[in-house]
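Quick one, tokens below:
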């Protein structure tokens, strides 16, 4: 029996791994298709904060991203990551891009030939390539799939009855050493996992007077928290600096 869809290549972060991982693209909000020297490419974009208004050393665009470029056929990275500024026209369309290391031009528009596979919420952007191929990007990186059985991925399939499998015994997952101390991981371990500058530690003066439990106090003052986006999503999923 053929698979409904198959992964062609992936730069998605392995599950159970935090932060950057060798061979992955890192989180991103958008994927774009293009041509560089007639080679089809995929660009991934992760939102970055614009420089402060008082910083006159550079001319920022309307939007700023960390951009990475991957060959569409096999996922080979074609250039070093670059910080790009997008300048929008009066209609909100991209009029100019500054900071790219490769010359990339838009491809001919492609319409979906087959439906895309059902996707988890971690996939934030999806583009059809043609030939039954889709490019998918999000909080875990970027990957490309080929739809093999269009009828199998179209529409919503009814939920399978439970239980799906018989009970199984489980093994203890080998926890990283930094998580094993009784007091839990320290600031340096989490900064290594999520990135330096992603964890906000509060001054003692910012702690409400009614908070007196010692371990509770140690977390916001000594370890820190990732910033939260709209109260639900950890900011480090998009790696936007807290400031």
């Amino acid at each position: 029996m053929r698979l409904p869809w198959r992964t062609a290549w992936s730069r998605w972060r392995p599950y159970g791994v935090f932060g950057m991982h060798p061979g992955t693209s890192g989180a991103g909000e958008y994927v774009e298709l293009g041509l560089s020297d007639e080679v089809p490419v995929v660009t991934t974009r992760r939102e970055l904060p614009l420089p402060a208004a008082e910083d006159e050393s550079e001319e920022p665009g309307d939007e700023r991203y960390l951009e990475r470029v991957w060959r569409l056929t096999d996922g080979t990275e074609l250039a070093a990551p670059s910080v790009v500024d997008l300048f929008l026209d009066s209609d909100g369309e991209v009029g100019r891009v500054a900071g790219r290391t490769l010359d990339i031009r838009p491809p001919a528009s492609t319409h979906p030939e087959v439906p895309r596979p059902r996707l988890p919420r971690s996939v934030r952007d999806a583009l059809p390539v043609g030939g039954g191929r889709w490019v998918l990007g999000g909080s875990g990186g970027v990957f490309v799939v080929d739809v093999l059985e269009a009828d199998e991925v179209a529409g919503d399939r009814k939920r399978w009855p439970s239980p799906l499998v018989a009970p199984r015994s489980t093994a203890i997952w080998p926890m990283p050493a930094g998580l094993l101390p009784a007091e839990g991981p320290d600031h340096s371990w989490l900064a290594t996992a999520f990135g330096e500058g992603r964890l906000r530690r509060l001054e003692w003066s910012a702690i409400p007077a009614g908070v007196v439990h010692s371990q509770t106090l140690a977390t916001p003052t000594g370890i820190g928290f990732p910033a939260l986006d709209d109260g639900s999503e950890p900011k480090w999923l998009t790696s936007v600096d807290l400031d």
